[in-house]
Specification:
With 145 residues, the protein is mainly β. The chain is 0% helix and 68% strand. It has a single domain, classed as Porin (Beta Barrel).
Length: 145
Amino acid sequence: MSGVLGGRFGDPSLGSGRVDGGSLDVHGCGLPIATRRWRLSACANLGLGLLRGRGIDVPTPTARVAPWLWAGGELGVSWWPRPRLGVELSGELATSLTRPAFHALDAQFITGGVFGGVSLGLVFELWGRKLGDTDPRSRGQARAP
C-alpha cells in the first residue's frame, strides 16, 4: 500500500461530504549516477487506487466508489555515510489519468490533475552487493594489499 487518504469537503451549512481511499503503486527505478557515497536515482511509477465518497449533512446521503489511476516520476539524491545506511532527498511529480469527482449538494471534490511531494528519509540496503564491489568472489573474504 503506498498511501491512504481521507478528508471532508464542503460547508456543513450547504452540504458536505467525505472522501476516503487507498492506493497501490509500482515503481521502476534506475541509478544513472552511483558512487560509493552518492547516488542519483530516477524512478517511474504507476498507481491505482479506489476512492469512496459519501454525503454528510445532506437530506439523503449516498456513497459511491470510483477508481483512480495515475502515473508519475521521482528523482532522488542520496548520501551513504555507511555502506548500507543512507539519507535520501527525493521529489515526485505525477498526473491523474482518471479524475474521480464527488458531489454533495453544492459541495464538490475533484481529484487533482497534477500532484507531487518531497520527502527526506533514511534508506537501508539490507542485501545485495555494495557499490564498488565488482568481483562477486571477493565478498566476505579478506583482500590482499
